[in-house]
Design brief:
α1 packs across α2 and α2 packs across α3. 44% of the residues lie in helices and 26% in strands. The model has no long low-confidence stretch (mean pLDDT 92). It contains 6 helices and 8 strands. The longest helix has 22 residues. It is α+β, with helices and mostly antiparallel strands and 172 residues long. Strands 3-6-8-7 form a 4-stranded mixed beta sheet. The chain has a two-stranded antiparallel sheet with strand order 1-2. A two-stranded antiparallel ribbon has the order 4-5.
């Protein structure tokens, strides 16, 4: 609902809303070992160096960041008329990092892992989840207290030739 919110708040107040949201994510992100790769409009693309515990850390971030937003709900509501909702897509695997461009140089991450994560992100709203993850990404992960897991089975994702088994994680 960020388009309607931006329209209602206007550009300056919407920018303040996004900035406060990013600041609210900072402590949970640092605690989980994650990093901000880039902002894309009202989205933040976060990364963890992939390891056996990376999915557990990312899920811990999801719970802690969501709790931080809820704990400050009164102030969000007073200042902006609503509390931000997070919808997180989680996938893991190899990527390539490189520098591209001529007039404007940029370091970018590429690969099927990011494409799949992007397609999972397209599905998050439809499944009303805090986290929508590939089953592959969370296999063996320790679920933090407060998350409930629902297997959605194989889901056809836009542009992917094979369905990807997805898992919906919601707050208990």
């Amino acid at each position: 609902g960020s388009t309607a919110l931006a329209e209602r708040l206007g550009p300056e107040r919407f920018m303040a809303f996004l900035d406060r949201w990013i600041h609210a994510l900072t402590e949970p992100l640092l605690a989980s070992g994650g990093r901000i790769y880039r902002y894309v409009g009202d989205e933040a693309i976060l990364t963890w160096e992939w390891s056996p515990e990376a999915a557990s850390l990312a899920l811990r971030f999801a719970v802690d960041a969501s709790a931080a937003l809820s704990a400050d709900a009164a102030r969000w509501t007073r200042d902006f008329g609503r509390v931000p909702r997070m919808r997180i897509a989680l996938h893991g695997g190899p990527i390539i990092a490189g520098e591209i461009g001529d007039l404007k140089r940029e370091i970018t991450f590429l690969g099927d892992t990011l494409n799949t994560a992007s397609r999972i992100a397209e599905e998050v709203r439809r499944h009303d989840a805090l986290v929508l993850a590939s089953a592959e990404a969370i296999e063996g992960a320790t679920l933090p207290d407060g998350l409930v897991c629902h297997d959605l089975g194989p889901v056809a994702l836009r542009g992917k030739t094979e369905p990807v088994r997805l898992v919906r994680l919601t707050r208990a």
